[in-house]
Amino acid sequence: MSSSNGSGFDTHVPLRMPHSPGVNSPARGKTISTRKRRTGYLTRLINAGPSGYAESGYYSIPCLWLCPGRRIPLKIYRMDAKGKVKIMHECNRVYAPDEKAAQGPSEGRQWVFIDKRSASELLYYLNDNLDEILSSPYLSSSEKAEFFYYMAFRRIKNAFRMPARISVADMKQIIAIMIEQIFKDPEALGEVFSLMQQNVCRAPSHPMVTFGHSLNVGILATWFVMKVLGGLKRDTLEEVSLGYFFHNIGMMRIPGKVLNKEGSLSDGPWSCLRQHPQWGYEIMTKIRGMTPEMAHIVLEHHERPDGSGYPRSLSGTDIHFFVKVCAIMDTLDALISPRVYRQPMTLLDALKFMKERTPREYDPAIFSKLILVMLDADLI
Ligand SMILES: [Fe+2]
After folding, report:
1. Which residues surround ligand 1, an ion (CB under 5 A)?
2. Which of 43, 66, 293, 317 is the most buried (most CB within 10 A)?
3. Domain coordinates of the chain in residue numbers?
4. Tens digits of residue pLDDT in 192-203
5. What distance in angstroms lies between residue 89's CA and the mean position of ligand 1's atoms?
6. What is the pLDDT of residues 139-167, one digit of tens each?
7. Distance 80 CA to ligand 1 centre (A)
């Protein structure tokens, strides 16, 4: 069986498709993945090299990450007038407001240091204080976008690796932050789209690509649903959004050698791949607090309007609007992202590719609306 069976184009199948030349050849024009990768402070922190950023053995962090009144589970250092690094805050102490005030009126732009060996404690601290840090008036839209994107990536990665420990409340918190702090700030939203397009969080292979792709589909689909269904209740939007972020969680049961394989898949791996919606559904239904809406997005995101999808070969109106949105964003993000077996397409080429497969594989009304929304947001 060829991997072109079923939906005609499967976003996870490394097939060289003779009728889709753009997919497997170097992308024409400006590919979004080749845009210059910025090196923001969080990027530098996470990807820092062995020599440290400012001082050997230390990472530098902006003072505005230190939340007054919160316990900080690591030692904080500052540089004295002679350029020597000295301790300014002991581990596990509550960070007092006067410590922050003592750093002067421009403390938001000052930097302190942490021991490199405390990087994981720092990430735990940042994760626990995400809301507080992102609400700082000193944080620029660009910094806000980076902070949100990397911390959301981390939550997705941890959730996919340890589904038994998934906290719906934690995921809803990141969704609420996305809606309140990112979607309502056009500049921050533009920066997040830019980070998505630069593939900053993922190697082109599984599982990193699965984490990044799930995050991107979650952001894109939630943003689109919010734009077109303005009156949607917040609770419903958050639940649907959770389904989008977890749509591919079943992929974690598929061996990397299947997902990273070059060339066509044989019958065995192909049928294994097609099980991921069902496996994802099973994982979702075991998570406390998940609703049927969330689980159905996971189960049905490979169904297609013409009935060619899987696992249940649903068609037309039997596929829910929220699921159809997921299918479109799933394909779109997969096409514009690199894989070990192919180059990324440009956003415009990807949309043309999908247009040729509409209405067979994608809902025409939703696809048209997506074009309008993207034009309105100046994305195309
Ligand atoms: Fe999938």
Report:
1. 248
2. 66
3. 21-37+129-376, 39-118
4. 998 888 776 667
5. 46
6. 888 888 988 998 999 899 999 999 888 88
7. 53
With the C-alpha atoms ordered 287, 288, 290, 296, is the resulting torsion angle positive or negative?
A: positive
117: Cβ–Cβ under 8 A, 6 or more apart, which residues?
none
- CATH tag for 21-37+129-376 (out of 1.10.10.410, 1.10.3210.10, 3.30.70.100, 1.10.10.10): 1.10.3210.10
Residue 32 has pLDDT above 60, yes or no: no
Sheet architecture: strand order including 58-62? 58-62, 111-115, 76-79, 85-89
Residue 7: per-residue pLDDT? 31
**How remote is the CA of residue 160 from the centroid of ligand 1, in Å?**
14
Q: What is the pLDDT of residue 97?
A: 65
The CA 251 to ligand 1 mean position distance, Å, reads: 7
Residue 38 sits at φ, ψ, to 5 deg, of: -80, 160
**Do the beta carbons of residue 96 and residue 68 sit within 8 Å?**
yes
Find the 302 Cα to ligand 1 centroid distance in Å: 6
Ligand 1 center from residue 312 Cα (angstroms):
14
Q: Do residues 351 and 332 make contact, with C-beta atoms less than 8 angstroms apart?
A: yes
User: For the whole prediction, is pTM greater than 0.85?
Assistant: no
Alpha helices in the chain (DSSP H): 21-24, 41-46, 97-101, 119-128, 130-134, 141-161, 168-177, 186-197, 208-228, 234-245, 256-259, 267-273, 276-285, 292-300, 321-335, 347-356, 364-376
